[in-house]
Design a protein that fits this description.
The chain has 176 residues and is mainly α. The protein has one domain (17-175). It is built from 6 helices and 2 strands. 31% of the residues are buried.
Length: 176
Amino acid sequence: MLQIEGVTILSFAPDWMHCKHLGIDKILLGSTLYVLVHDVLKGTVPENLEQVWKDIEAEYKRQNTAHRYGRMRQTMFHQTSQPKLQGKAVEVRDLGPVLLKVWEKHMNHNLDIHRKIQVVLSGFSKSQTLNPNFFLVFKVLSTWVVVVGFMLSRFCCDRMSLGTVSSNFPLHSTCL
């Protein structure tokens, strides 16, 4: 495609909803929920899920979140291959800042891996305020996807994998 006269890398822009909200965010948030429910909290999986959901609901209310999940079941983020949260793009988008606060409530601040997950969640929450139509954002996000994928696969448990995300990022981009 880049062989066509007038078509350059500047002719491409990311499909923000599919690349971010329905792509990497679903995997990041699903992986975070999985780690919270299975590894961080000390109760049984159903008890932990109930606790996390109560925290999410309280944070939804505190942040006055517009688009909320109505409930949370383990099957919504527990897949056989890798955790991936189910839901609509706006639900996933609005859960990011909420889940950051829930993570910060339960994380062990003495564990390096927990601080790294916090940094990644914080970066994703802050990226909500970026203008997705600005070309620099495309370059930053494509680099961010690779960096986050590397961080999660290298520093987190095996269940936190972003193997297909960086390869699918260009596929979900659209030509102007």
